[in-house]
Amino acid sequence: MSLIVAVDGPASSGKGTITKLVGEKLGLINIDTGAMFRCVTLNMLQENVTMNEEEKIEEILKNIKIEMNEEGKIFLNGSEVTKRIRENDVNDFVSPVSTIPIVRSKLVELQRKVAQGKNVIMEGRDIGTVVFPNADLKIYLDASPEERARRRVAQNKEKGIESSYNEVLEKIIDRDKRDSSRELAPLKKAEDAIYIDTSNMTIAQVVEKIERLIKEKEGEI
Ligand code: DC
């Protein structure tokens, strides 16, 4: 039997940190689908492929190998890219790349395949709406743009990167707009998803809440 927990929400809503912790605690495989879009984006940058070159994008998608190990390290075509896919050139290009229909359909196929027969917690933008509309549990994590910008600035600081709050906030608002207004698989809460606003919650509180919801579900199925 497999259990699928879908976690969607906007950039910097804490999905990454929280799904990793919940996955570790409950023994669920954590799949970061944003990292998959980032890998396709990096591969396009490496090959100098632009948005309109459909044939070249198809070629990339035909050959791409994306792997995630148990420590959360990400490999693109055999090379580790865990940090590389978080750099600025990828950040700036990933949102448009994620609107390309053939990229989305290929990644949805991979996402379904990787979860087959396993217990997973998968995070993204369209997991509860498109990838697994029948997921056992759907969570929509949110936080105000201001709180998300504060978190992002603090995260950057920890990594030794100085960033301006106003610039980060502007980028977050811009990315939200693009992710939720795109035609294909826009970011939106599935009707049956549980909405959690984490603006005034600690990481531990959110983890505990989701853990409780999963245990309740496990009791039901
Ligand atoms: O979660 P993230 O910031 O790593 O996601 C990177 C980009 O990929 C973001 O602009 C939205 C897009 N994305 C998507 O369209 N669908 C997903 N399931 C996951 C991410």
In short:
The chain has helices at residues 15-26, 33-46, 54-63, 88-97, 101-115, 127-131, 145-158, 165-181, 203-220, and strands at residues 4-8, 29-32, 66-68, 74-76, 79-80, 120-124, 137-142, 194-197.
Question: How would you characterize the overall build of this protein?
Answer:
- This protein is an alpha/beta fold.
- Helices cover about 50% and strands about 15% of the residues.
- The chain is built from 9 helices and 8 strands.
- It has helices at about 15-25, 35-45, 55-65, 90-95, 100-115, 125-130, 145-160, 165-180, 205-220, and strands at about 5-10, 30, 65-70, 75, 80, 120-125, 135-140, 195.
- Strands 2-6-1-7-8 form a 5-stranded parallel beta sheet.
- Strand 3 (about 65-70) and strand 4 (about 75) form a beta hairpin.
- About 35% of the residues are buried.
- The mean pLDDT is about 95.
- Bound molecules: 2'-deoxycytidine-5'-monophosphate.
- Bound small-molecule species: 2'-deoxycytidine-5'-monophosphate
Low-confidence stretches: none
End-to-end Cα distance, whole Å, is 10 Å
Oligomer: single chain
Q: Which sequence of SSEs, written as H and E, runs from N to C?
A: EHEHHEEEHHEHEHHEH
The side-by-side strand order for the widest beta sheet comes to 2-6-1-7-8
Helix fraction bin: 40-55%
- The 3D shape can be described as globular
Beta-strand residue fraction:
5-15%
Average of per-residue pLDDT values = 94
Global Rg:
17 Å
